[in-house]
Design brief:
mainly alpha, 8 helices, 3 strands, 7% strand, elongated, membrane, transmembrane, transmembrane helix
């Protein structure tokens, strides 16, 4: 009995020593998801927590492996060009999406509301992070899971004594440990993330609605003025100037919603 326990402990130690942080998270998530089934037989409520913990570990594992991948890619000039291009594209897309959101709220040129655009960019970041995670998951699925047999054959070929002698390879190439186990867990991780896309679609819609409500509150309270030389139709109206003749008018309705419109700015007649 003690010998078996020592062997299992030795195996677990090898797994721990020969895997990176992302791979450890994969295995951690797999263990928690396997625990979810027997827990479900006892308590369905607590089994959901185990399942969510496993999915979270898978997600974080993909992020960590993505960081490791990009850090290795950054060591090459061509990799720096690719990463810089991706960063520029994401930044441009974020600013464009934020500007479009603000323009949809106020109904006019959003360049007059730079603080609202900046805040919108921060609030939209979780959605963009989720999209990037989905893209990374698909990338890992295609380039790692589907091509892993070729990767394995390539390393086996390079490890052959005749090939190493022909190519003058003095050091035997490193062998990835527990490769098939990690391929299996990566496939599960990607499968869960992709299957949850439709489930989280409703959350994304609700989140975007919340972003629009918060940005509307911010514009009304911080970027529009109470005092104005324009004619006010009620006490709730506030103004933001587009030019000398045109203004954005924000008002608070009785049901606590913010409405914005454009109006020709007419001076208040002097008494």
């Amino acid at each position: 009995m003690k010998v078996k326990l020592l062997k299992r402990a030795s195996f677990l130690r090898k797994v721990f020593d020969n895997t990176n942080a992302g791979q450890k998270l994969y295995l951690f998530g797999l263990v928690w998801m396997l625990f979810a089934l027997p827990v479900w037989l006892v308590s369905e409520k607590y089994s959901v927590y185990y399942l969510l913990l496993g999915i979270s570990a898978f997600s974080i594992g993909l992020v960590v492996e993505g960081i490791i991948f990009f850090s290795k890619l950054w060591d090459y000039k061509f990799g720096k060009i690719i990463i810089s291009g991706i960063f520029s594209a994401v930044t441009t897309f974020t600013i464009a999406s934020s500007s479009a959101t603000v323009a949809e709220i106020v109904g006019t040129d959003p360049s007059k509301f730079p603080y609202a655009i900046t805040l919108t960019s921060f609030l939209l970041f979780p959605i963009f992070a989720w999209i990037i995670l989905q893209f990374s998951a698909l990338t890992f699925f295609v380039f790692h899971t589907m091509l892993v047999p070729l990767y394995w054959l390539y390393h086996q070929f390079r490890a052959m004594p005749l090939v190493r002698y022909s190519l003058r390879l003095k050091v035997k190439p490193p062998k990835e440990r527990f490769m098939w186990l990690l391929v299996f867990t990566r496939a599960i991780a990607v499968g869960f993330l992709i299957s949850n896309t439709q489930v989280l679609g409703k959350f994304n819609k609700d989140y975007l609605t919340g972003v629009e409500n918060n940005i509307s509150w911010f514009i009304y309270n911080f970027e529009l003025y109470k005092k104005s030389h324009c004619t006010r139709l009620n006490e709730q109206e506030r103004f933001g100037y587009i030019n000398t003749k045109l203004a954005v008018v924000g008002t608070l309705t009785t049901d606590k919603k913010y409405l914005f419109s454009t109006r020709t700015c007419v001076k208040i007649p002097s008494e």
